[in-house]
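Need fresh eyes. Consider my entry:
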Amino acid sequence: MGYVAVKGGAGAIAAAEELVKYFRVKGGSDPVAVRQIQDQFRLAVDKVMGEAGLYAPFYAALAIKQAEGDLVEASFILRAFCSSQPRQYYSVVANTGEMEVIRRISASFKDIPGGQILGPTRDYTQRLLDFELAGESRGHVEQFLSSYLKDINLSGRAAPATFPKVVDLLRAEGLLDEESTQPEEEIFDITRDAVTFPAPRTARLQAMARAETGGLMAIAYSSMRGYGNVHPNLGELRVGYLPLKIRHPEMEGEVYVGRVLVTETEVITRFAAGEDGMPRFTMGYGLCFGHNEIKAISMAVLDRAMRSPAPGSPAGDQEFVLYHTDGIEASGFSAHWKLPHYVTFQADLEQLRAAQDRQRKGEA
């Protein structure tokens, strides 16, 4: 493409940046604290962390404030910050069976070991506008917290922190295809190496973990509706805190450095014949930062779809899925049309005028 540099506009650009700041604060309300965004817009913070590929709740909240609530722009800001930071360690492969669960459900089995744990969810509520929030004050919050915590029975038996995996029930009966559950020996790093196609599964899962939730959902939904062959059952969805460990060069063994909130999904899909010819269920897998269930479910559907693509299905095309679900890449290319394209458009104008002149002479 041909572009021209914008010259002489430095003053205008600086003024435009000042105008952005003015539009954010011109309403006269009190500035929103970053900690407020981190605490009360937790799902937005989780989306930004996932799409940026950096688990940093405070910085994600700061990016949301800077971007005036534009989550794609906030993800762009946070990923740019992440790219400027040194990488000192690689984490040890985590065992999600060690997850400290706050929510855990299965839509495939009613009774599961440890029981269904609904946790924090709006799945069973009506989507009605809550006008009481318009007048919410610190006093209302403290009153609710006092009442809520008083009603909780803290003297009873404590719930277990970890739970067995639901799909292990199928695996124990030989009903689950083991090929669909085995991890790859070598882990591909999409932040260090360019992805080529066909891409290994580790690369596909990493790319989807950083993808934009809406983009993943749209393509996964196409498979669910029939433009593909994956119509899943939710084996298990769990949200919780996963221990993060590293191998420190100056210490022996694994070192615990903290925990991250993640959402994990395992979906059970159609039968497939194994190497021995025995039909078994297959599985799709999704895991992402924070509490983001739609993204994890969409990941799992697309993980399965890309391993056995249906003819003509967008959901099964690795290049289509991975290149078109990165919200930062997509927004960047969409926004670049706002940059000067004077040279290319002038060339198009000249070609069109010449074509019209030839047409007129031909008619004459």
In short: The chain has three domains: 10-83, 96-120+135-325, 333-363.
